[in-house]
Amino acid sequence: MTPANAAAAQGAAALKGGGAAIPRHVAIIMDGNGRWAKQRGLPRVAGHKAGAEAVRRTLQAAADAGVEVLTLYAFSSENWRRSDEEISDLKGLMRFYVEKELNRLVDERVKLRLIGDYAAFGPEMTRLLERAVEKTAGNDRLTLVVALNYGSQQEIATAAAKAASAGEVTVESIAANLETAGLPDLDLLIRTSGEVRLSNFLLWQAAYAELLFTPVLWPDFDEKCLNEAIEQFAARQRRFGGR
Q: What predicted TM-score, i.e. pTM, was given to this entire model?
């Protein structure tokens, strides 16, 4: 364990041991891979590779802190507007890291869950992803939700249509038909890179979530960043509309 990892682990232990409020469900808009690469004179794919390493660090830190669900915005429905070369790079990285990290997820007792129309990535990728979901289904330490080809407006529209076809459109019936149904309510939503918007991510689920925007570019996000975000969450007073 590196000194930085040891310090982060101590920070997570302090959060748990000190009675701090730990968010059950944390979501992250992972932004800034391209800018990180550009600052270093590297191709965009290098930023995406570094971002994948940040996912590994953050997943471990979330599990160590006692977070139950970590939802990551990996590929939005709008990302198809990017260049064919970048989309190809992203698909290749996705395939590589799913294959590489699957055993780690099993060993760390992490359950994988997918939201979004991931079938758009093709039958080979779909089989690979669904195999990973199946292999981790019995894990119980942390649930990793990965949003792939996901757009929240479409999710809400689809959920409302399903509720209507069942005969009743209410807050409860729409929520029950969202792709995140059955998960704890979203407590904390983080966006990296300094952008201050939700970009069509978990719009319904974020209704009462705490929002945190950090200037840190995603490839630089680490255990310390997550623990600091959790500390900020714990310091906020959540009134849910009350005084």
A: 0.90
